[in-house]
User: Fold these one by one.
Assistant:
Number 1:
Amino acid sequence: MGEYQGRQLASKWAKTAVLRSNPQIAPHIPPTSRYTSENLRSMLNTHGMVVVKPVRGAGGNGVIKVSKTSGGYSYSYYAKTRNFASFESMKRSLDQCKKKRAYLIQKGIYLATVGGRPIDYRVKYVKTDNGWVYRSLVGRIAKPGLFVTNICRGGTLVTAAQGIRRSIGASFVGAKKQRMRELTVLSTQLLEAKFPGIGQLGFDYGIDKSGKIWIFEVNTRPQ
């Protein structure tokens, strides 16, 4: 059964815009904006914690968690957290960290955890001669001390069922897996209509502490 390599869409912005246009999918996408000083300040005021990530990039590279704290502001980059008294000093340091790359800001989601470590899920969906098929649906538990779950950053791979059971409870396994599949099919239909020629998709899902499913990202040519 042949797999299509398919076209690659590097920009997270273009893919997010398509998904947010659908009323069934939009509620599952965290509020997202372009990285500017004004947007960062207002999103921190609104959400308290945001994730800043490159518009192009994968593997958790360059992803920074920024928080408004009782004493000012802080950000975490890999295993290191820095604290700042003012927004301006935090933003200066953050700009050096992110270098010249284009970034976006996404509302931070407090993920359900396994042993205090955040877990998210990767669904790999590929186009074959017989149509779209699932290649994998796995959970990724962050390495202790990190907030990114990527395996290349020391995350632990579990089955989706194990991850759901250990983070929010066994009674949710069937329903959450089914919902991720439904969102995957609907998202793929939208993306394929907009970007003909895609053939491999990797969906990054999170389940927050209240059990809501979020779509963080869709990768073309997923690793």
Number 2:
Amino acid sequence: MDLQEFLTHVRSGSPIIGGSPEHEFMHGASQDAFRITAQINDGYRTPDEIRDLLSELTGTAIDESVMVFPPFYSEFGKNLRLGKDVFINLGCRFQDTGGITIGDGALIGHGCTLTTLNHSVDPDRRADMEPKPISIGRKVWLGASVTVVPGVTIGDGAIVGAGSVVTKDVPANTIVAGVPANALRSTGFDA
């Protein structure tokens, strides 16, 4: 199995069956991601060096406007897409196997966790995983320690309050907060 075959499988929404070729590929790819994130996190790196390592991690060019403050963690890397002017603060954890897209100008607060895999509810199939992508729109602001669960889309210009757990889609230009996150009001701006 190669990367394109794996990504096609995941993007179709098909489960990753425990012990399957897809499962084995995912575990092998995670070792590469751990190696690269260890390099990001093992000492001082210039912003250019971090972007170079992020390019290696994702397999795509990272725009010079992207800024990431280490430590930064990703368990796959190859299904992570960062727009221009994205800022990711320190201590973020991205489980991007199912796909994470972060739009231009998004701000990701420190300690945020973005997860794209659910394990099977059936205890006999618990090693199986269900991939669901996360999409974060343009100019979104996630406060510190936000958790976003699999399958969530956060619309352009939305704000998610610190410590929130986002379990459902967030409309554009909406402020949400809480566990689970609920809409509080409009931002009053059109992103």
